[in-house]
Amino acid sequence: MSEQASKTEEPLSTWLEGHHRIEPASAKTNDTELHIYAQTVGGDPVFGGAAKYMADADVAVSLQGALTLELHIEQDREGNLTCRLGCAVPFHSPVLLGEAKGSPAAGVPISFQSDIVRGRATVYHKDGWCWLHIDGAVLGKHLNIDTKLYRFL
Q1: In the structure, what pLDDT confidence band is assigned to residue 128 with cuts at 50, 70 and 90?
Q2: Which of 15, 85, 86, 109 is most buried by a 10 A CB count?
Q3: Are the C-beta atoms of residues 55 and 74 closer than 8 Å to each other?
Q4: What is the 3-state secondary structure (H, E, C) of 43-97?
Q5: Residue ranges of domains in the chain
Q6: How crowded is residue 40: how many other Cβ atoms within 10 Å of its Cβ?
């Protein structure tokens, strides 16, 4: 394993408690178990007892085996969001799918089209959480997912 992959000296089990959440398979997740990894832009945990509430975050949602959607979210002083969506697979550079700005109350939609993923993602706030809705296809499989990502300021 390369030195570049090593980002923390914290035991993996401890790190996962604060940075990983499993969303069980359900109608809301297209009957797919989702693994959601998140951290503040500074690297702090967002789940568990040490969780920090935040406005800016990096989130990864594993889909279809090794394919991961990567989402970077920033909130400005007016409360609007800037969202950047990409996808990645092991050993390949991440691919930017799209960027958008908007109100979290109305939702920030990002339409995307590439050779392996297509559709629309919307980032929005509900009940004190930042949520992600995806309606599209990944590696030819239709996905219609609505899941909470992390607690929001």
Answers
A1: confident
A2: 85
A3: yes
A4: CCCCCCCCCCCECCEEEEEEECCCEEEEEEEEECCCCCEEEEEEEECCCCCCEEE
A5: 3-151
A6: 18
